């Protein structure tokens, strides 16, 4: 389907997805895909569905189509500025049929999750002797290589495989839940990004990526250069927290202090709330046991880092054709025209693509650790 020079391609099927037939592409009304930096991506696709011919006498034609059955795989590719990009690679999990007495007003909506769904179907009881968290993550992701998942794992600052005589890491969750649990220990995130090729996805386990080159800037209050439809800034000084306490080092059996002071994330703001409001910052107690002092400090630092990520949150929407590109989540984008406090670089937390005939909108959420730009000029 082509809209405003934008071409959509669907691949769908029970095992190996194949190009969608004209029956589906011609009935397409709207595509909604949400990518988040700390949650599975989801999709919702709406088709026009009516009953007006011999083939519809027993049931809605689309509803009886085997390609739209739950647990089929769906790949959505959008070609924008002559560049194809995999927008979604996921599994259909739900169907909804709102009917209407008005001719042509009925629709069929399918929804689903990205390939992390496959990692969340079965709870396991597994042990990983002498394996560090990053090695466990690589192994868990490797189980899903048949679905095209490619692991991208960033090792924590401290890699200390536990001795089997002291401790054996144990999983009592689904693979997805355990990967998220391991990530949270270090202030990391886990998500799956579709592409770059259809049928492949990158499974990322590591810190939020905040040091990449910024995307095309979001411009506000800049006359003809403005490229956002709406934008709102919110500052929450209650978000950041430092961690303090003590731990009995399992190697030396000595009680050692645990303390964090600042975030170790790549800085995006010149005035981080954790430093500006230091006397009033929340203090959390470190309560883990059975750790070395290095492990305890690493886990405490991860908790502090994660608490600073969303001090400033920005929500808004844009028209992709006016923006001239597709805003990508899990990276960095510049904002200009909002004044010194809110200009500068932000981490792109989530992006929702809303595509319908004659329209391509994107809703976005950005975040960073405080106010003030770290650069005097935001590159357009």
Report on this model:
By secondary structure, the chain is mainly beta. It folds into 4 domains: 2-114, Thrombin, subunit H (Beta Barrel), CATH 2.40.10; 122-206, Phage tail protein beta-alpha-beta fold; 217-235 and 311-351 and 366-373, no CATH class; 241-302, no CATH class. It has helices at residues 22-27, 133-142, 175-185, 273-276, 293-307, 320-323; strands spanning 2-3, 6-13, 18-19, 28-36, 42-48, 73-80, 83-96, 107-114, 126-127, 149-153, 170-171, 189-194, 201-206, 215-219, 230-235, 241-248, 255-259, 269-272, 282-286, 312-319, 332-336, 344-356, 359-368, 370-373. The strands form 5 sheets. Strands 1, 2, 3, 4, 5, 6, 7, 8, 14, 15, 20, 21, 22 and 23 form a 14-stranded mixed beta sheet that branches. Strands 10-13-12 form a 3-stranded mixed beta sheet, covered by helices on one side. α2 runs antiparallel to α3 (175-185). It is globular. The relative contact order is 0.15.
Short description, anyone?
The chain is mainly beta.
| Structural class designation | mainly beta
Mean pLDDT: 92
Sheet having the most strands? 14 strands, mixed
Coarse morphology: globular
State the end-to-end distance: 31 Å
Helix content: 10-25%
State the order of secondary-structure elements, H for helix, E for strand: EEEHEEEEEEHEEHEEEEEEEHEHEHEEEE
CATH architectural designation of the largest domain:
Beta Barrel
Give me the CATH fold name of the largest domain: Thrombin, subunit H
Number of helices: 6
**Percentage of β-strand residues:** 35-45%
